[in-house]
Design goal:
Strand 6 and strand 7 form a beta hairpin. This protein is of the alpha+beta class. The protein has a 5-stranded mixed beta sheet with strand order 1-2-10-9-8. It has a 4-stranded mixed beta sheet with strand order 11-12-13-14. Strands 3-4-5 form a 3-stranded mixed beta sheet. The two termini are 41 Å apart. Helix 8 packs across helix 9 and helix 11 packs across helix 12.
């Protein structure tokens, strides 16, 4: 409830009367919260390994108005949407879909299949269209797929004839995509509150969506890493090593031969992508990420444990902090994402001296008592 103490007596009475009227129409705060919990419980009961149910709209928000419909989202868990090809995990069990915002209106995107091999194509063939040798998802065919005879098309949803239920089938993108970045600093008069905006941003930074090393500031003072998500890379690293090692030991082998010999069940496109980005050095017995710049050295690929050990060794030198360690490693080691280094530093480096310094409040004076800067 808003603060009304600075209002005049008349405005205060009008505000309270309007609040009571809304409570009678919509329900009290406790009633609204109870409705929300009921829909959350319903979503949990309806959850399935192949899809996730999300109740949305005014009813799920606890606002049960006369004439309002029930909005239901079915998120298909067999698909994963990525903003671009760089972030795709080549060995995921889900069908990778790529966003294409060229020639689209703001807030809209085209979705195309990352790999047209039979492994993925069979999952979307019923609602796919081929345009300029690319396989796109047809929004019309996607809406109509598996639609019961008793339902009709209503915008992006399947609805019943009396429009009391809107059912939308969805695919998930677990990234804070580039077009959404301006939302944080968008000019707004009241809603949403600044604290809510910061809360949403904090959820993203705490791995609610995969962290890609973005630094959300109005003016970026630190560069954004172009390395892919580190956890995704480490999950796929054994496959990269196997493919690159096979190519190094048998230089005449092409993608088809490598697929046949290793029996990984991959498409030629995936193997070509790996070979274009990585190579294996027999002298050092290491995998390297190829440099696209002649003035920049190839970077050695390291596992998560190796990176943790490197962070610890760098910290021992002169109690280096995460940002300094990032700058020291980013030109020689792959993958190095600033936020990943920060997380590993906080969780793996056990230094009481640094922990004590970090935990000090910003207002605490940390200089010596005889310092001329003591306030």
């Amino acid at each position: 409830m808003f603060k009304i103490y600075n209002m005049s007596k008349t405005d205060r009475e009008l505000s309270l009367n309007f609040y009571k009227y809304l409570c009678n129409v919509i329900g009290t705060e406790e009633v609204v919260k109870t409705r929300r919990k009921l829909f959350c419980a319903l979503d949990s009961v309806l959850r399935h390994p192949t899809f996730t149910v999300i109740s949305s709209g005014s009813k799920a928000e606890g606002v049960d108005l006369n004439g309002s419909d029930y909005d239901l989202m079915f998120v298909l868990e067999s698909f994963q949407v990525y903003e671009n090809m760089i972030k795709v995990s080549l060995f995921t069990n889900k069908t990778p879909i790529i966003m294409d915002i060229s020639d689209t209106k703001p807030g809209f995107t085209k979705l195309k299949l990352f790999d047209r091999s039979n492994k993925y194509l069979r999952h979307i063939i019923q609602f796919a269209e081929i345009l300029e040798k690319e396989t796109y998802i047809s929004s019309k065919l996607f809406r109509e797929d598996h639609m019961p005879d008793c339902m009709i098309i209503h915008g992006p949803c399947q609805s019943n004839p009396d429009n009391t239920i809107d059912f939308a089938r969805c695919v998930r993108c677990e990234e804070w995509i580039t077009p959404a970045h301006p939302w944080i600093y968008r000019s707004r008069s009241s809603w949403p509150d600044h604290r809510l905006v910061m809360s949403v941003t904090a959820m993203m930074e705490q791995n609610t969506v995969p962290d890609e090393g973005y630094v959300f500031e109005r003016k970026r003072k630190k560069g954004i890493s172009k390395d892919p998500n580190a956890e995704t890379f480490w999950a796929d690293m054994p496959y990269y090593v196997e493919i690159a090692k096979a190519k190094e030991q048998n230089s005449k082998w092409g993608p088809k031969k490598i697929i046949a010999e290793l029996k990984l069940g991959l498409s030629e496109r995936v193997v070509k992508t790996v070979l274009s980005q990585y190579f294996y050095d027999q002298n050092t017995d290491c995998l390297f990420r190829k440099s696209i710049d002649l003035n920049v050295h190839h970077r050695r690929c390291v596992s998560k444990n190796d990176l943790v050990n490197m962070i610890k060794e760098n910290h021992k030198k002169d109690h280096r902090k995460a940002d300094t360690i990032y700058e020291a490693l980013r030109t020689t080691v792959f993958p190095v994402v600033r936020e990943t280094i920060k997380i590993l530093f906080k969780t793996e480096v056990k230094c009481q001296q640094c922990a004590s310094a970090i935990d000090l409040p910003k207002t605490t004076t940390t200089r010596r008592p005889n310092s001329s800067y003591v306030s």
